[in-house]
Write a structure and sequence with these properties.
The complex is a heterodimer of chains A (132) and B (148).
Chain A lengths: L24 E2 L3 E5 L3 E7 L3 E11 L2 E8 L8 E5 L5 E7 L10 E5 L2 E7 L15
Parallel strand pairs in A: 1-7
Antiparallel strand pairs in A: 2-3, 3-9, 4-5, 5-7, 8-9
Chain B lengths: L11 H16 L18 E6 L2 E7 L8 E6 L2 E8 L8 E5 L4 E8 L10 E5 L2 E7 L15
Antiparallel strand pairs in B: 1-2, 2-8, 3-4, 4-6, 7-8
Classes of the chains: A mainly beta (132), B mainly beta (148).
Amino acid sequence: MNVQEANVAAKQEAKGPEATRPGRTFVPDIDVCETADSILMWADLPGVDDKGVEISLADGVLSIQGNVSVGEYENLTPAYTEYNIGNFVRRFSVSADIDAEHIEAKLNNGVLELKLPKRERAKARRIPIVSA
Amino acid sequence: MTLFRFSRGLDPMDRLLSLQRELDRAFQNPHGLTQGLSGRGAYPPVNVFWDKDSAVVRLEVPGIAADALSIETHGRTLTIGGKRDVTVPDGASFHRRERGAGEFKRSIQLSEDLDTSRADASYRQGILTVRIPKKEEAKPRQIQVHAA
């Protein structure tokens, strides 16, 4: 079995334009992969529920924001902590060939799954070679 | 140490801020928990809280099926293990791969006044919460003041 020391460079704080409100914002871990007809993304957003997710695609920038709910911390006193809690933000520039109207998003167990379908004309086309 | 008791007046952002501040403060105090843990930097990171009559252990482990999590107690040791599968559609190529996959295991020494036989766990929105009640004799007791 391949055992490796998991690298937990604590949660990374988001950089970029400063928010007008104080507080920390974190960068979610993301997997991105591409298939023939779409780009698929998975983002880890622990502690975020359906209502806390905001996704937008404007001017070729895809923004993913996840707002955590803190209700579950009511009446608790921290004894020992290894991670902090905050909203998640991440932005990607996406090629214009995405069909923004048909982006699909699902949230399951703190993982956001996004499907960004490519427009028809961006799909790879196989060109048959005609032998002489 | 402060207790998170959010007043209704606070908006969600203020509530989050006060939570962040308190977590920072606890972070600066490595001896908040009397017994040693397996150490910072291990995966997954753990937060431990107290409420009135139990210890609350919380871990961020998104994307795991509830039945792929295992929680065991052995004496005073709480061990949390799990497995995360990252499935890739056929014929897809990865552009970025940041989310870890595979198995993990983490053990925590609990304090002696907790009753591990009555521990229970829940998993919501990728966060695992294990609640271990204090033993009866360790629960806070009101002491009556008698007027002379």
